[in-house]
Design goal:
The structure holds two protein chains of two kinds. Chain A is mainly beta. Chain A has no helices and eleven strands. In chain A, strands 2, 4, 5, 9, 10 and 11 form a six-stranded mixed sheet that branches. The chains are: A mainly beta, B mainly beta.
């Protein structure tokens, strides 16, 4: 079957760095997405990786290893507003998204 | 500005009633999706449509119905057959070129059954 695994909850300190991991198993692969979702709001797009490697976008970076079925989202210089859920989703061969349950990130001062 | 508009944002329903959630996009996207999100869970696919007048069931289609008469519109009806409809509903669309990345979301509709 198809599934996505990511930690349920993580805690980090303001100004620090945190890495949120995601492993996936899909029928075929057409890319890996990361979204940020604040409570009660719609998800907002953070990144899309389809090739192996690291993509950096400001304070956020996303890494993909297709051979390992693994991705991570790296958040630097954490701010209180980064407290949110982070959703990992893999696109399968039918271009359907398989979603993880999300990682709730708690930032402490 | 281009985007996806969902309405209403909040909706209350009595048991036994059908309700329809609206989703309109002006992004010229071919593919549109309806997801359901329950607290502490990921997104679950209800229905999706890749072209006008065609749609496919997702993982949890029972108790829901959709139509796609226009490219811009993909309304979702939550029928009385849906036994536990209280949830956060999200509409999304993606560009025609499927490898272009971002799935765009509407702001969501929160349905509560009284």
């Amino acid at each position: 079957g198809q599934n996505i695994d990511q930690p349920t909850e993580m805690t980090a300190t303001e100004g620090a760095i945190v890495q949120i991991n995601c492993t996936y198993q899909t029928s075929g692969f057409n890319g890996l997405f990361w979204y940020q979702q604040h409570a009660g709001e719609a998800p907002t797009f953070l990144s899309y990786n389809v090739l192996d490697g690291l993509e950096e976008k400001g304070r956020f970076s996303s890494f993909l290893s297709r051979s390992k079925g693994y991705s991570y989202l790296l958040l630097k210089e954490l701010q209180m507003k980064d407290s949110a859920s982070y959703l990992c989703a893999a696109m399968d061969s039918n271009y359907q998204l398989i979603w993880g349950a999300g990682t709730k990130l708690i930032i402490k001062p | 500005d281009g985007g996806i508009t969902q309405s209403p944002k909040y909706l209350f329903r009595k048991e036994g009633q059908n309700v329809t959630l609206s989703c309109e996009q002006n992004l010229n996207h071919d593919a549109m999706y309806w997801y359901r999100q329950d607290p502490g869970q990921g997104l679950r696919l209800i229905y999706y449509s890749q072209i006008v007048n065609d749609f496919q069931k997702g993982d949890i289609a029972e108790g829901y119905s959709v139509s796609r008469e226009k490219k811009e519109s993909f309304p979702l009806t939550v029928t009385s057959a849906q036994k536990n409809p209280t949830a956060f509903y999200l509409c999304a669309s993606i560009p025609s070129g499927r490898d272009t990345g971002e799935l765009f979301f509407g702001e969501g509709s929160r349905l509560t059954v009284l």
